[in-house]
Structures are given as C-alpha cells and as structure tokens.
Design a protein that fits this description.
Layout (H helix, E strand, L loop, with lengths): L5 E11 L4 H9 L6 E11 L1 H4 L4 E4 L11 H19 L3 E5 L4 H9 L5 E4 L3 H8 L1 H13 L2 E4 L2 H10 L8 E3 L23 E5 L8 H8 L7 E5 L5 H10 L6 E4 L4 H7 L5 E4 L9 H8 L4 E4 L4 H5 L3 E4 L4 H13 L1 H15 L4 H16 L1
Parallel strand pairs: 1-2, 1-4, 2-3, 4-5, 5-6, 6-7, 8-9, 8-11, 9-10, 11-12, 12-13
Amino acid sequence: MTMKSLTILTGINRASEPSSGSLILANDLYRTMPDAQTIYLGRRPVDQEWKAAFGQLIPISTAKRPLGPGFDTYVDELTREVGALIEQIRPDAIHAQNVGFALSLAFSRTAGTIPMISIAHGPEVMAAERNATEHAAMLEVAAASAAIVTPTSVLADHIDRLTGRRFTDRITVIPWGIRLADAQARDQPSTGTGALSLVHAGRLDDNKSTITAIEALALTDQPHTLTVIGNGPLRRHLEQRAVELGLRDRVHFERYLPRAELWSRLPSFDAFVFTTKGLEAFGLVLIEAQAHGLPVVYSALPRMKEILGTAGTAYTPGDPYSLAATLDEMGRDVHLRKSLAKASLMNARRYEITTTGRELYELTLRVIS
C-alpha cells in the first residue's frame, strides 16, 4: 500500500495527561504514525510530554458538563466549537475516541464529508448498556462513522448488539499495544515457594473489583502480600475492608503511578492480579505486566484467554475463594510460576504499539480512499 502524509484530528475530552489507559494509549499510538500529522483536542492541564506526542494540541474551551438537564446544551456548545476548528483545520480524517461520548458526538455532527473512524475504549460501551441517553449517542456516532475500531472481538460483539447489528460491516478489531522496547523483565523470576508478592494496578471502582483480591488474601493458606496501585471512588472503602479483615500488614495502597514509575516497579513483584468482573475493553495493564515477566492471575472473563494466550491462570470472576485457591497453588508450584513467566514474555511480543499504529493508519487510508 502506498503511504502518503495526512492530517488526523482526534482527542479525548479530559485533561491532557497520562491518567488512564485510554489516554496513555492515544499518546503512544499517534507517535507511531510518522506519515501523519495528528491534531489533538483535549483539556487543561496539558502535560508537556503529552503535548510533544502530537503535531498540535488544542485545549477545548467549552465548559464540561456531565449527563443531566444541561447535557444537550453542553453538546451543542461543544459542537459549535469543534465545528469551527474543523472548518479551520480541514483534516483528511477524524478519529473519534469513544463511540458516543460528548466529543465524539460533536465530531459526528460536524464531520460533513470528512471520513470519521470511531475508536471504542470500553467505558462508553458500559455506559450505553445502562443509560438510554448514552445508548442514543452511540447509535448516532456509529451511524456517522465509516469504520468502528475495537481492540477485541468481545467489545466488537457488544457494540454490534447495542447498535442493532446495523453496522456490523464497519467494525474492525485492531488489538492495542505497548512500547515493548521500554519494558524490562527481571533477570530471574522468583524461585522460592510460599508467600507471593502480588500487585494490582488500575482504577479502584466497582467493575475493577479490587475487593475480590483483598478478601481473597484473608482466605489464603499462605501470607501473600498485595500492593494496590491506583485511585478511584472505592479507595477508602477498600482500605477500611483490609483493616477489618486483619490485613493491615499484608495489603498496601499506593497512589496512581505514571507509567515509567509503574514499569520500574513491576519486575519486583511475583505476579499480577487482575480482578475485573464485568466488561473489560482490553486490559492493557495485563500486557504491561506480562512484558515485565510477571505471571498473571486473572478473572475468567469471556475471551480474556484470547488476549493472554496460555500466559495466565484463571479464577472465577468476583469469587475470593476461587482466587485464594489459585494464589496458593501458584505459591506452592515454582515450576508453574516459571513457565507462566516465560509464556508471559512471549505473549507480550504480540502487542507492539507500532503494529497497532500501522493497522490504524492503513485503515484510515482505506477509509479516505
């Protein structure tokens, strides 16, 4: 395929800093497209390293307002601002991050003849499943999109169902990736038996179900320790629950860590614990853990094995008894842990961000043509 330079307009309607998987992915992804100039719409504050990833970063000025009585007015104001920018920039293509949130709605209403690809991240799909307004927004954005990109077939199936299977032929699966060259595995995995040093990283909300890991530790035969890294609405509740269960010395909480700092810490742990109990768009942190040689203990969500291959060991989602038994088995079986660590490194190689960037770039060219 002949490559040509093109201008892509995209953005995420949040502070322009690496505070979530979606934002980190966007920052990595558009660095991999040297033949494209990416213009990014975000909100203040703007992280300077973040700004360097794009050809231009334009802060959104329309005051952000969540769902409620003023939501339609907010979207109208945002649409006027985005429309004026599109008229000025005249991009070759628009990448609407999230299929149905306010900024993607504004893109869909102002794109006109400019081809638009919407990119699903997961939270908007969960919102569309529980809220009629969000569902209507997803339908509108999907209808305006020449293509809809999702990282897994599971998310593709959810979107296909929510949109009444009207846009099946527009849905394309492109797996996410990470900058593998920046990941460093420990020289030798832990070879001892007994208690494990475990890590869990992510947003502390109900769907991530961190409580499952904490309650599991109270049920294990071995005194495993758990480091919980991240922020979220359930942080205080989780801390209190750990104290109630007598785990004050075995469960440690740390703030959200920038990726470079998190990655420097990962090799010091024995295994990563993934506890999400509902829909998970991709679970990029799982690949980050694997790229550092960590075995992954994960909740057996649909198609999660598709992402992890044989490089993890599963337990029943939301069941602390099942997780406790799985952790104890891993603590006792050194050979299992070593084989999972090796398989993790091999599986992570499938998820290089440059591959994600190339596939999205080529899809963009096809949509334009």
